[in-house]
Amino acid sequence: MRLFSVTVILLCAYAQVSAAPQDANIACAAALTCQPEVKEGGLRYLLDGRVGTGFSFEVGTEGDGWVAFDFGRTRTITGLRFFQHSEIYYTTDYTIEGDADGDGTYELTLAEGSQAKIGDWNERRWEPAQVRVVRLRSVKGVSEGRRAHPCLAEVEILGPPLPGDAARAAKLGNPVGTVAAPRPLQRNTSLVVNDSPPAILHGDDAASLAAARTLAGELAKTIGREADLVSTVEDARPGQRTIIAVGNCVTNPLIRRLFFNWYAFEDNLYPGPGGYTLRTVCDPYPWHGGVNVIVVGGSDEAGLAAGAQRLLALARENTVLPYLLEVQSEDKPPPEEVRADVAKAPPPTFHAFLDAARDYLRWGEQAYARRAMAVLDIMAETYQREPDRDIPWNEETTSGDDAARLRYTRALLSLLYSLPRRVSGYGGLGKDDSVTWNHTTFPLLGLY
């Protein structure tokens, strides 16, 4: 979760545009069948977003094979892409057909092709067609062994994504190989949500309790109603209303959870003596109610008191707070040190992204955010050019606008899908009691 958490927080500072639905790969929302039949689960490799994995027909089969995608309802389909990864079993000539009502009759020929490529994408587009089932059928091919053709690494069905596609994919047991649209984020934070005042969650120490009481008393004058002063995450009800969490990961149970996922960084040493942070955490995992948390962070009483006063000053200006990342700390790097850091050419790894993103979230310097996004641009381009990229070892362990968030999320998902094959004994996890070793635990840490 840390990699995705840092990405979401980093990009909260950017872009207020919403992306309109566009054609995307919607194959994960379809039930897959094929002829000849294959073992249960074999077809799912067509949807895992990785051209390094795929399926082949069983030994003893022969001739022209096909694979079909049944969406369970009529969908708008505009194209199909497929990737062949075998030089032994492959199609040369193929047809793409549509069954409009799911009766088993493919009355529409959507596209035809010949001289299909191996080791590269084959793509066909057409005018939007309303169909329930799409079938890719080989009509001529090569089988240099005892199997039907073709072997396929990936098949993508192109069309407008619909709400519920991911839920249907989960029900079908299909992997989601890509992300069709970025998750909506509310960067501004209203103090009153769903007609509920904010919950002010203090820690188990006197300093955070004092600052929380100050906030509760003064905010009541601003919003015209009493805020709830609470001490547990359950009583705060995250995901249902705005929460102001006061303290740090040592004292406050919610900040502790945010800290574990790198949504927050406050502890007894950071921001340090007399320092404070104001931090917006947008719709944090795992609550997902579209409601934000504001962290008023500090390491001591003086810092928490100063942070509370700063938040009150902002709330008096407007009860809908802007995205916040303010850091007051005597340890904050000077501007010339920041400029020297970001002037260095970043290496093309997600590890470099994490370093820059952490620096941004710790110090609130936009230069670090721009560096982190530059690395993500490099990584998104890398995965577009080399979808089966071989990852360096440190990504196993450390692994602005909506369009950018979508590109970055897809690149991160590609990284996650590449990690299981680096985990020694991945298929046996949970099935034995043997002691794991570093080649198992390190990539698993990267996945987490």
3D structure, described in words:
The protein has 448 residues and is of the alpha+beta class. Helices cover 31% and strands 23% of the residues. It contains 12 helices and 15 strands. The strands form 3 sheets. Strands 1, 2, 3, 4, 5, 6 and 7 form a 7-stranded antiparallel sheet that branches. Strands 10-9-11-13-12-15 form a 6-stranded mixed sheet, sandwiched between helices. Strand 4 (89-99) and strand 5 (108-113) form a beta hairpin. The longest helix is centred in the C-terminal third of the chain and has 20 residues, at 366-385. The chain is elongated, with a radius of gyration of 26 Å. The model is unreliable at 11-21 (pLDDT under 50).
- What's the end-to-end separation, in Å? 5 Å
Q: How many DSSP H or I helices?
A: 12
Structural classification: alpha+beta
Give the low-confidence spans.
11-21
The gyration radius over C-alpha positions equals: 26 Å
pLDDT average, as an integer?
Answer: 88
Helix content: 25-40%
Largest sheet: 7 strands, antiparallel
Give the amount of beta strand, in percent.
Answer: 15-25%
Order of helices and strands: HEEEEEEEHEEHEHEHEEHEEHHHHHH
Topology readout:
Blueprint: H1 2-11, E1 24-25, E2 31-35, E3 66-83, E4 89-99, E5 108-113, E6 121-143, E7 154-159, H2 165-172, E8 189-190, E9 199-201, H3 206-223, E10 228-230, H4 233-236, E11 243-247, H5 253-260, E12 276-281, E13 293-298, H6 301-317, E14 320-321, E15 325-328, H7 335-343, H8 350-363, H9 366-385, H10 394-397, H11 402-418, H12 438-447
Helix pairs in contact: 1-8, 1-11, 3-6, 8-9, 9-11
